[in-house]
Amino acid sequence: MSSRDVNSPAQPDRPVPDEGPGAGNRPGAARPIRRYRRGRAHRLENALMSALVRAGVVPHSYLLTTRGRRTGRKRANPVTVVEHAGRRWLVAPYGVVPWVLNARASGRIGLTRRFRTRHYTIREVSAREAGPVLQKYVAIASATRDYFQADKNASPEEFAAEADRHPVFELALCGTSEG
């Protein structure tokens, strides 16, 4: 695997779980983490989820739109938005995937729900700020729990320790909307 492969980024600082029977069940053993790999099944799942999210059927979920940083074409992905401490947050549970790179490059995103799009500026936050947001994210987005080292009952500090693997962005409404 190339270190430039954004779909499964190299993570040398992550503890590697022991192999063999009972691995991960012993005290102190690292919890195994799933890696996100795009494939036919994920594309099909994203297409189905995108339709459901666009219609507003899936709670907490939106269709994220970014502009491709090289092509300029619009890209869409289903995402879960977290509301915490009176603010809205966007979490990248699968790491630095293409939508994260596109969002970082432009500094703006669109979120669509129930066929209404709102535009936001984004600010990537520090690990300290990200910890409580990641904790809440894992509580509401159960399908992504296997991609986190910390379990749903972990402290915000444990989530902050892995914030470098799960970018978190604060959202600020731009004020322009499309219907």
Structure description:
The chain has 179 residues and is α+β, with helices and mostly antiparallel strands. The protein has helices spanning 40-54, 98-106, 127-140, 156-161, and strands at residues 61-67, 74-84, 87-91, 108-113, 116-124, 168-178. The protein has a six-stranded antiparallel beta barrel. Strand 2 (74-84) and strand 3 form a beta hairpin. It is globular, with a radius of gyration of 17 Å.
Q: What percent of residues are in strands? A: 25-35%
Over all CA atoms, what is the radius of gyration?
A: 17 Å
**Lateral strand order in the biggest sheet:** 1-2-3-6-5-4
The major β-sheet equals: 6 strands, antiparallel, barrel
Instruction: Round the mean pLDDT to the nearest integer and report it.
Output: 81
Task: Sketch the topology as an H/E string, one letter per element.
Answer: HEEEHEEHHE
| General form | globular
Distance between the termini: 42 Å
Overall strand count: 6
Helix/strand structural class: alpha+beta
Q: Poorly predicted ranges (pLDDT <50, ≥5 residues)?
A: 1-27
Helix content: 10-25%
**SS element count, helices:** 4
Set down the secondary structure blueprint:
Layout lengths: L39 H15 L6 E7 L6 E11 L2 E5 L6 H9 L1 E6 L2 E9 L2 H14 L15 H6 L6 E11 L1
Antiparallel strand pairs: 1-2, 1-4, 2-3, 3-6, 4-5, 5-6
The gist of it:
With 179 residues, the protein is α+β, with helices and mostly antiparallel strands.
Question: Descriptors for this entry?
Answer:
single chain, 179 residues, alpha+beta, disordered N terminus
